[in-house]
TrEMBL record:
Keywords, in A-Z order: Hydrolase
GO terms assigned for molecular function: hydrolase activity
Stretch forming the signal peptide: none
Name this polypeptide is given: Cysteine hydrolase
Isochorismatase-like domain ranges (all copies): 5-147
Length: 184
């Protein structure tokens, strides 16, 4: 089996009910993230947390130093687990993520978090481009309603479209339960 690492992307307070940029189904996704964290920790496999902050106070969410930009308690890092701060959509851009994965001899990344249509998508594609095998745990990811050219796209449809696209050529798709039951 390839050496795996779990990448937990942007499970932060602003994405939860009452936050500035609520994601549909974030509580359910976070429960699955928590199950994945427990699974990786029990296996003593690497876990990397990604935390997004915009560089400006006038950002719509994840403002620097705010409670909304803090990692939600369901995904709280354990001692020794790196938390990488990013200012861009792609978790690899201007962060030490690639070096961190190489230091741990990681060959496969397992990705979860938010937003399905932005940061999860960008990290998945970049990880694949860097040569990692990639698994996306689809029910440990969340999205929100989108709009384009007057067309409203419900969150469930946005999530499904991005998971379908990633699953076509960039990543293996798995539910949290399926992943935990088959990877020991």
């Amino acid at each position: 089996m390839k050496r795996q690492a779990l990448i937990v992307i942007d499970v932060q307070n602003d994405y939860f009910p009452g936050g500035k940029w609520e994601q549909a189904g974030m509580d359910a996704a976070a429960a699955n993230v928590a199950a994945l964290l427990a699974h990786f920790r029990a296996r003593q496999a690497p876990v990397v947390h990604i935390r997004h902050e915009f560089p400006s106070e006038d950002a719509p969410f994840f403002t620097p130093g705010s409670e909304g930009a803090a990692i939600h308690p369901t995904a709280a890092p354990a001692p020794g687990e790196p938390v990488l701060l990013k200012h861009h959509i792609n978790s690899f851009r201007d962060t030490p993520l690639l070096d961190t994965l190489k230091e741990h001899s990681v060959e496969e990344v397992v990705i979860c978090g938010a937003m399905s249509h932005m940061c999860v998508d960008a990290c998945t594609r970049a990880a694949n481009d860097f040569g990692f095998a990639v698994t996306v745990v689809h029910d440990a990811c969340a999205s929100r309603d989108l709009e384009f050219d007057g067309v409203r796209v419900p969150a469930a449809h946005a999530h499904a479209a991005f998971m379908a696209a990633l699953g076509f050529a960039y990543a293996r798709m798995s539910s949290a339960g399926q992943f935990i039951d088959t990877v020991h």
